[in-house]
Amino acid sequence: MCDSRTVDYEALDPGIREVVRTLRKWGFNTCDSGDGKTKVGDPEWDQETVNPVPHVAVVVPADELVEQARHLASLLKREGVALVPQGRGGPYVAASFDPTDGTAILYLAELDDDGLLAARRSDLDDFPPEYEP
Fold first, then answer.
1. Which residues pair with 97 in a beta bridge?
2. Domain-by-domain residue ranges, the chain?
3. pLDDT tens by residue, 62-76
4. How far is CA 2 from CA 69, 72, 80, in A?
5. CB neighbours of 70 closer than 8 A, spacing ≥ 6?
6. Using 50, 70 and 90 to split pLDDT, how confident is the model at 106?
7. Do 111 and 33 touch, CB atoms closer than 8 A?
8. Phi/psi at 69 (5° precision)
């Protein structure tokens, strides 16, 4: 399973590090991620297993799956990320539960570092021009 204590951010795909860092700062136990670009077409990776979509998987307690999905969605909204229903061509959160082993996973997809940073910058449009964050 995932190690909730440490993450070697340099070992992550470069286009997903800030998303992972943000989720972990919010207390989520990330366990798999990819920026949807770095490994695509790389002969060192089995292309059958490479996910061409930016994504981060998060392990949550099974009895908190729905609550944690809503919490993650609200935190992303606060950051300026506009979530859409899965399959609609934008960032989304999905939740799954495996009854055979009790694993509960939140899956954030279609959001990479560029998208997160752009969402954060769009919130700054509400401030006067002289405001410097």
1. 104
2. 9-126
3. 999 999 999 999 999
4. 18, 18, 28
5. none
6. very high
7. no
8. -65, -45
